[in-house]
Amino acid sequence: MNHIVIIGAGKEGKAYLGEVYDAAGWNVTFLDKDSRVVEALKETGQYHVTVLRKDRTEQRTITGYETYRDR
After folding, report:
1. pLDDT digits (tens, 9 = 90+) for 9-43
2. What span, in angstroms and rounded, lies between the C-alpha atoms of 35 and 51?
3. Are 62 and 49 in contact (CB under 8 A)?
């Protein structure tokens, strides 16, 4: 299985890159400098994304990722 580290767990990191790689079956790891973001992702173990497809809108829950603080 492929693995990707995404630097930045903001909107673009989680909602775009994280969702795309998760949907493709990759192991996803987020690296972020904001300890509040990192702790929230660790605490909940999931986040929700609205994905706009050509013919529909999907609500996805992303789980199974890892997250670390960039010091």
Report:
1. 998 999 999 999 999 999 999 999 999 999 999 99
2. 26
3. yes
